[in-house]
Backbone:
C-alpha cells in the first residue's frame, strides 16, 4: 500500500531563525515552510519545475539508532511527486556540502535509515546540496526568482474589494503575437503593439506574468532580458 503524505509532521517556527520563513506555493495551493535560504531556493526550483506535480516539506518521521544504540528521530526536508507515474516519489534532504563533510558520521546514520525506509516503501532517497541547487542552477535560479515577483501578482488582488477588473485582452494579444512568430523577442513583439512608454511598461509587466505562468515560453537557462526570445509551445 502506497504511503500518502498530506500534512507536514513538524512545524518550522520562524521566530527561532532569521533564515526561516514561508513561501506561497502554486503547486500545492498552500504555504510552504523553510528553515534555511538553501531550502528556500530549492522550493523555487520545485515551483518552476514542470515535471513536479506536488511536494511537501517535513513529510515524515523516520526512527533509527545512533552509535550509542539510542533511538533517534529523523525528519527529511521534502517529499516530491512527479507527473510521470513511472517515476518514484523522492524523499529529499537539503544540505550544504560543508555540513556533509563536517558531520559525516552523524548524518550517515540518518541517511542509511532513510534509504532503508525508502527501499521498503518504493521511494527514492536523494541528498541535494548547495552545489546542486545553486552552483549548477545559478542562472536558472536567478531567472525564476525574478519571475517569482510576477507569477502571483494578479492572484493577490482583491477584485471585489477594490473594484478592479483584470482586462485579459492584452494578455490574449501578446499570446497571439507570440504564437504567430517563433523568432520574436519581448522587445520586438511589444514594439508591434505600441510605442507609448507607459503602455510598453504595462505590457512588459504583463509579459513577465505570462512567462512566469507558462502561458508564453522562454529559455530560462539563459539570462532573461527584453531581448530574450519567446514562443508558444
Residues:
Amino acid at each position: 500500500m502506497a504511503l500518502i503524505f498530506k500534512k507536514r509532521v513538524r512545524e518550522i517556527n520562524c521566530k527561532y531563525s532569521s533564515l526561516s520563513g514561508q513561501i506561497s506555493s502554486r503547486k500545492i495551493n498552500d504555504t510552504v515552510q523553510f528553515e534555511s535560504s538553501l531550502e528556500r531556493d530549492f522550493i523555487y526550483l520545485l515551483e518552476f519545475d514542470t515535471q513536479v506535480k506536488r511536494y511537501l516539506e517535513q513529510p515524515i518521521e523516520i526512527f533509527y539508532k545512533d552509535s550509542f544504540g539510542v533511538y533517534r528521530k529523523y525528519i527529511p526536508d521534502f517529499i516530491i511527486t512527479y507527473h510521470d507515474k513511472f517515476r518514484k516519489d523522492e524523499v529529499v534532504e537539503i544540505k550544504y556540502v560543508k555540513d556533509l563533510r563536517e558531520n559525516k558520521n552523524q548524518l550517515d546514520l540518518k541517511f542509511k535509515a532513510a534509504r532503508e525506509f525508502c527501499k521498503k516503501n518504493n521511494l527514492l532517497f536523494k541528498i541535494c546540496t548547495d552545489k546542486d541547487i545553486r552552483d549548477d542552477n545559478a542562472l536558472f535560479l536567478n531567472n525564476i526568482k525574478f519571475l517569482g515577483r510576477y507569477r502571483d501578482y494578479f492572484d493577490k488582488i482583491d477584485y471585489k474589494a477594490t473594484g478592479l477588473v483584470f482586462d485579459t485582452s492584452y494578455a490574449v494579444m501578446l499570446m497571439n503575437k507570440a504564437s504567430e512568430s517563433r523568432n520574436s523577442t519581448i522587445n520586438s513583439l511589444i514594439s508591434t503593439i505600441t510605442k507609448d512608454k507607459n503602455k510598453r511598461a504595462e505590457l512588459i509587466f504583463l509579459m513577465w506574468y505570462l512567462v512566469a505562468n507558462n502561458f508564453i515560453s522562454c529559455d530560462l537557462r539563459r539570462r532573461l532580458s527584453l531581448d530574450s526570445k519567446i514562443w508558444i509551445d
